[in-house]
Specification:
Helix content: over 70%
Structural class: mainly alpha
Shape: elongated
Distance between the termini: 25 Å
């Protein structure tokens, strides 16, 4: 909730482009669906989603969707090594996002990509 509010504030202040919010929603839905697909694959002995893929989705900003999937689906919620890396991805994303918002030289140098 606070993350979404921060994104709205950043869009309002023109620190993020308008499409960042819908892109975040899509990324989080994709992340949740990837967790669901991985859980289903684990239950049916199918090919699994690599853990590093799930972690990269969290780092990219899909960590709220990952957190929700861990709670609702009870998937990857008790595997401690995975959880440690997940929280490191959340922290890393937060640091990068904060640097983007509050350190103008970084935002200016990376804005060419947007």
């Amino acid at each position: 909730m606070a993350y979404g509010g921060l994104m709205l504030w950043a869009i309002w202040r023109s620190l993020l482009p308008w499409w960042a919010l819908p892109a975040s929603v899509v990324l989080n839905l994709l992340t949740f669906l990837m967790y669901w697909a991985d859980k289903r694959a684990a239950q049916t002995a199918q090919r699994r989603t690599p853990e590093n893929t799930l972690q990269l989705l969290a780092l990219a900003g899909g960590w709220p969707g990952a957190w929700l999937a861990q709670q609702v689906l009870r998937h990857k919620s008790s595997k401690q090594p995975f959880r440690l890396v997940y929280w490191l991805m959340v922290l890393s994303h937060g640091l990068l996002f904060g640097a983007w918002l509050f350190w103008p030289p970084l935002r200016k140098s990376l804005s060419v990509w947007l």
